[in-house]
């Protein structure tokens, strides 16, 4: 395979799909193997049970004083034949299962590369950091008993200010799942009020409101002073919260209809839907139309409102808003790293085989082939100044030069050396510091 063909094969994504198809095939073989094992196990158990029943009858007959010697010999020979037949049956079934296991093992070995450990020539992971990541993942997934045990065994310490908000999250999610919506609505309204207060000033929330957030267990402090979202962040979160609150009120309204509590449903709609008339006009009209089909809602145009999907949607929206309020991603860092590695690993393995050089890709400045992680794992850009080799920060943001090149602020201020003009490090044109503009990715 030529270099061009190799690149095209790697970039097309066909190779990872082949590996994915192999994994699907192995998984299907495993399902069939488990089904076969259960079937053989069940039939073997029945055969053994039948032999036990025959043994009980044989013992009764052989010990009976009315049974003659000749009859006992015949009974013994008959029982011996049953034992030999069972032994033959079990031997055949054992061979059949063993052959299926051997076939599955070979297909698994062909699918998984035994040299995977040689793909990455890196130092072992820092044990303390890895244990911390595992503990955080367990807490974020709601496995609190396991997380507490893991923390004790690993010696990791997780403060209450870190753990308690997750307990609140899963307690409220459980309430939503069981139709108790008041805690979720109260949380949504409380956070919305905090955002409105923080928007009144450029500094955001006051010390008292920040303390209130921590007291209400709705915020995870990453530092001694809780950070306040930017104006854009506040607006985005406020919009999510407004949408979430409507979904919760919608779910409560539908619950009233399902319980045939029509007066309560109408009163609830009048009380809570008015604030959403401009943004949710069409859906509110559809919800009001449900009154005409209460007796035959399953066959009505609004049957979709009366499925579990409505509760699932509210639950997922609440989860996203909760993570956004805590300034955390929806998935734990450990999950994201493993997921990205799972996507990238087949491509890198095939690239290692096909590339002419045997040099480890970890020793290069860039990957040997582009890896598409999908939209889900595309995060905000991180700018690295090509001159100072430093990542941009809020105090050292990227600046766009008139010539089109981008440098960090500190580099732009350092290049003039007391003059008002300086030469761009990457082209012959001269620049003025005053003409450079901060940019945001």
Automatic annotation (TrEMBL):
InterPro entries: CRA_dom, CTLH/CRA, Fyv10_fam, LisH, Rmd5_dRing, ZF_RING_GID, Znf-RING_euk, Znf_RING. One of its GO terms (biological process) is proteasome-mediated ubiquitin-dependent protein catabolic process. Gene3D superfamilies: Zinc/RING finger domain, C3HC4 (zinc finger). Keywords: Cytoplasm, Metal-binding, Zinc, Zinc-finger. A zinc finger (RING-Gid-type) spans 385-427. SMART domains: CRA. One of its GO terms (cellular component) is nucleus. Residues 198-232 are annotated as: Disordered. It is found in: Cytoplasm. PROSITE patterns: LISH, ZF_RING_2, ZF_RING_GID. Residues 201-212 have a biased composition (Low complexity). Residues 385-427 form the RING-type domain. Residues 214-232 have a biased composition (Polar residues). Residues 385-427 form the RING-Gid-type domain. The keyword Calcium does not apply. One of its GO terms (molecular function) is ubiquitin protein ligase activity. It holds the Pfam family CTLH. This is Uncharacterized protein. It comes from Cyanidioschyzon merolae (strain NIES-3377 / 10D).
């Amino acid at each position: 395979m030529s270099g061009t063909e190799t690149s095209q094969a790697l970039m097309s994504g066909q190779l990872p799909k082949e590996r994915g198809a192999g994994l699907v095939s192995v998984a299907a073989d495993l399902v069939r193997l488990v089904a076969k094992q259960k079937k053989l196990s069940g039939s073997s158990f029945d055969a053994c049970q039948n032999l036990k029943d025959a043994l009980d009858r044989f013992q009764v007959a052989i010990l009976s004083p009315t049974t003659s010697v000749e009859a006992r010999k015949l009974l013994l020979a008959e029982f011996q034949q049953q034992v030999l037949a069972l032994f033959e049956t079990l031997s055949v079934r054992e061979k059949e299962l063993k052959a299926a296991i051997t076939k599955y093992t070979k297909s698994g070995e062909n699918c998984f590369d035994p040299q995977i450990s040689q793909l990455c020539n890196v130092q072992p992971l820092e044990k303390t950091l890895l244990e911390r990541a595992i503990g955080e993942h367990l807490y974020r997934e709601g496995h609190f008993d396991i997380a507490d045990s893991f923390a004790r065994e690993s010696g990791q310490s997780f403060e209450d200010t870190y753990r308690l908000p997750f307990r609140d999250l899963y307690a409220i999610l459980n309430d939503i799942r069981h139709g108790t919506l008041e805690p979720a609505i109260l949380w949504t309204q409380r956070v919305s009020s905090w955002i409105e207060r923080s928007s009144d000033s450029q500094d955001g929330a006051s010390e008292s409101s920040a303390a209130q957030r921590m007291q209400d267990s709705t915020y995870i402090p990453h530092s001694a002073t809780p950070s306040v979202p930017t104006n854009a962040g506040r607006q985005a979160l406020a919009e999510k919260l407004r949408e979430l609150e409507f979904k919760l009120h919608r779910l409560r309204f539908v619950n009233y209809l399902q319980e045939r509590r029509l007066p309560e449903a109408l009163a609830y709609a009048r009380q809570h839907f008015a604030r959403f008339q401009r943004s949710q006009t069409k859906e509110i009209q559809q919800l009001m139309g449900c009154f005409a089909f209460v007796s035959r809602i399953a066959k009505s145009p609004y049957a979709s409102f009366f499925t579990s999907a409505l509760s699932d949607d509210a639950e997922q929206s609440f989860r996203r808003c909760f993570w956004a309020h805590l300034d955390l991603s929806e998935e734990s860092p450990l999950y994201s790293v493993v997921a990205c590695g799972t996507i990238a690993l087949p491509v890198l393995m095939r690239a290692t085989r096909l590339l002419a050089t045997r040099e480890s890709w970890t020793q290069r400045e860039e990957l040997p082939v582009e890896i598409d992680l999908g939209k889900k794992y595309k995060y905000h850009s991180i700018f690295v100044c090509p001159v100072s080799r430093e990542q941009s920060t809020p105090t050292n943001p990227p600046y766009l030069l008139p010539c089109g090149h981008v440098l960090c602020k500190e580099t732009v201020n350092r290049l003039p050396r007391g003059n008002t003009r300086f030469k761009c490090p990457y082209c012959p044109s001269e620049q003025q510091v005053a003409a450079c503009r901060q940019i945001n990715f």
